[in-house]
Predict the structure.
Amino acid sequence: MNRSNFLVHVGLALVIILIAAFAGQYRKWQNQVRTAVRIIPSKRIPVDARDRETIIHEEEQIPLHAEVMVKFREGVSTATIEDITSRLHDQIEDEIESVPGLQAIDDLDNADADAIVAQYSSFPEVEYAERNFVISLDHAGGGKHLHATDPRFNEQWALANDGQSGGKAGADISAMQAWASTTGSETVVVAVLDSGVDYNHEDLVNNIWRRPASVAPYQDRTIGLVEDEQGYNAIDNSGDPFDDNGHGTHCAGIIGAEGDNNLGIAGVNWKVQIMPLKFMNAGGFGNTKDAIEAINYVINRKRAGVNVRVINASWGSTMRSRALEDVIRKANDAGILFVAASGNATTNNDRRPHYPSSYALPNVISVAALDRSDGLAQFSNYGARTVHIGAPGKDILSTWLGGEYESKSGTSMATPVVAGVAALVVAANPDLSVTELRAVLLKSVDPISSLKGKVLTGGRINAAKALKS
């Protein structure tokens, strides 16, 4: 063997020895790590980016303290439920009183949510179990009339469209004609189930619901006492639903920015009570458990004597939750209309449902968005069977954080238009049932060619017609 070949072989031998030594040390380190640290894999939260108006980075996540919602069968005792959760090393985070047997459960071992669902589903005492899903925001005339004095009213084409900014004259909800009959009532409460509301905004402050002295503070069997002076925050179970995102404040202004006060804009209602509900965080994310808790709160307040008649839900997900469906059904039983955004994915909800707007419940109205020329907005979902009505939802000016005003687009913006019209109708007809209110809204439309075959009614909401029904 010549010298060069000898050196090559020696070199190879040394490399092999070094690799073997490193592998042995690596296994030793690995074993040490395994005995010292429990590795918990991060949970990727499924989010349909098309269902959001504001783009959030895909890697952004939120903690879900309650991994699952579990509905125990009728007759299962509290002791049995506690025994099952204890055996699985879980704890009950909240009991949803309006739906008997429904529990929000936190797994103390941080196991995968699907595995926890499978565990509970195997028990004969359980009716159903499901993940606590992530939810994201859905941004995206003539005759007798009453004109608002608000300085930016001329920018509110949804209420009065004279063709400004290239729009189509008359492509609006006939708000000024409706206001000749009523501008709303401070006895009517609309709950804004969203990111909260900037209740200090100068155009909202006089129309914010405040718990009357005759109504006791909110008492939840699991959460405890909540001093809900001006609404409810389901994220931290407090009475402070202040908005740190802006979305809820925008929706609130569309429903009920104080009108004719020489400030900013006018809402569909000049007078109304907006009940702020916060279950979305600053990034625009929430989850089904917190949404359910907030709806449960509204039902409790209604039973306590608060005249809450409408819930506005400008958000959604393609994930179906039986628990969320159950609590919205209980809201119907309590006489509360649930107005929901159809979504911003440009998809057919008949084929690809969007929840909660696609729940086939008697109190749900699903809303598509229109532009200022009466066209179906390019982002809006539709569905001849599952989307019910259209409303203006593109370039909608409304209230924003810090006393500001901004224009936003989305079925999120169309939804509070319909919720606002519902509140006007209740102001004029306070004895209407939720079934009658929904029927009035769905028959009070202007037929629109762009909605023919796209939504159930084939039309855009008309507030003046609704008040004449």
